[in-house]
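Q: I'm building a small set of examples for a reading group on sequence design. Run inverse folding on the following structure and report the sequence directly after it, with nothing in between.
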């Protein structure tokens, strides 16, 4: 068996049916984003926040552009229309630079609990921008589902009133700005409608966004020499965050925005805390409280409300398949 045949056989066996593809990618995206918290925490011990974010996208852009250049014809990964250039610029500014710069700066000035809740407002802001710029309306059950899912995140994070009073209000506003940048940027990206594939668009946006982050790092007074003499653990954290949690994760995220829209894609912000808690338990031995499990169930209930039409259709399909199987296995009765 040749390598090409073996690869095709494995791809066929491991492939996910088309109707489940976006769901599987959504879950994988939440896992990749949720698993990055340990690596980010490790890297911030030696690196300034915005500089670390810039290094993250340096590595991600080089990795993704290299992969694209080796596996795709040149005509498929170069921007050719104004929409392509506008999409790259908007993604670089809002989804890469502003999102990560404000988020990393804000996390340094507030508590993780407050930051998680503030950033969890992203899926609530996305429908507002989508209504304003795209004319999309959310049903009252969909709005209720978003609110229920946010309540689940609050149960998982367990912020107390002191969480929002002891920490710096500036830090919380910075994180809220990051959430707004993601919501607005994802909606604008869908509005300009770039024609190029989401993967090369992601790579170019990372490259431009990395430059913007390095400029911002200098403007806020972070020393570029901070990268000199960093330890192996910090280098490992850059690699861990830069490749799976950035190069791979952002390519999935941009593809989901294109296929299922910004409102549904940004709901990943509600699933990330769930996977962060589970991975912290599995990898670091962190305890998982009863409220974490209850919060997870509440998040699932919120998603069920938002995706009720898809779930109803899938349940009907499974029921029909069950009836067909039962009728084939039941022997005919003799008269």
């Amino acid at each position: 068996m040749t390598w090409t045949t073996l690869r095709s056989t494995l791809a066929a066996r491991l492939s996910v049916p088309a109707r489940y593809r976006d769901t599987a990618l959504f879950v994988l995206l939440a896992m990749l984003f949720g698993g990055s918290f340990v690596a980010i925490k490790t890297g911030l011990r030696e690196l300034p926040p915005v500089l670390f974010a810039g290094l993250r996208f340096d590595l991600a852009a080089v990795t993704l552009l290299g992969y694209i250049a080796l596996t795709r014809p040149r005509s498929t990964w170069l921007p050719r229309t104004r929409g392509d250039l506008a999409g790259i610029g908007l993604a670089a500014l809002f989804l890469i630079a502003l999102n990560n710069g404000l988020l990393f700066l804000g996390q340094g000035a507030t508590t993780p609990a407050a930051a998680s809740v503030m950033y969890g407002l992203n899926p609530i802001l996305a429908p507002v921008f989508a209504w304003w710029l795209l004319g999309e309306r959310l049903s009252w059950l969909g709005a209720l589902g978003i609110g229920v899912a946010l309540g689940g995140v609050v149960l998982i994070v367990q912020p107390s009133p002191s969480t929002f009073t002891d920490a710096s209000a500036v830090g919380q506003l910075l994180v809220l700005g990051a959430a707004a940048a993601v919501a607005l940027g994802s909606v604008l990206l869908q509005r300009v409608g770039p024609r190029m594939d989401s993967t090369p668009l992601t790579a170019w946006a990372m490259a431009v966004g990395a430059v913007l982050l390095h400029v911002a790092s200098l403007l806020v007074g972070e020393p570029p020499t901070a990268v000199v003499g960093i330890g192996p653990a910090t280098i490992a954290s850059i690699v861990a965050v830069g490749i799976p949690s950035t190069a791979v994760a952002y390519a999935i995220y941009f593809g989901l925005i294109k296929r299922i829209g910004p409102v549904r894609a940004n709901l990943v912000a509600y699933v990330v805390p769930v996977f962060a808690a589970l991975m912290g338990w599995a990898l670091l031995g962190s305890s998982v409280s009863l409220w974490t499990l209850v919060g997870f169930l509440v998040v699932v209930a919120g998603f069920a409300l938002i995706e009720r039409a898809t779930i109803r259709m899938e349940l009907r399909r499974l029921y029909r398949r069950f009836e067909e199987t039962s009728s084939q296995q039941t022997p005919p009765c003799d008269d």
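Residues 232-260 form the longest helix (29 residues).
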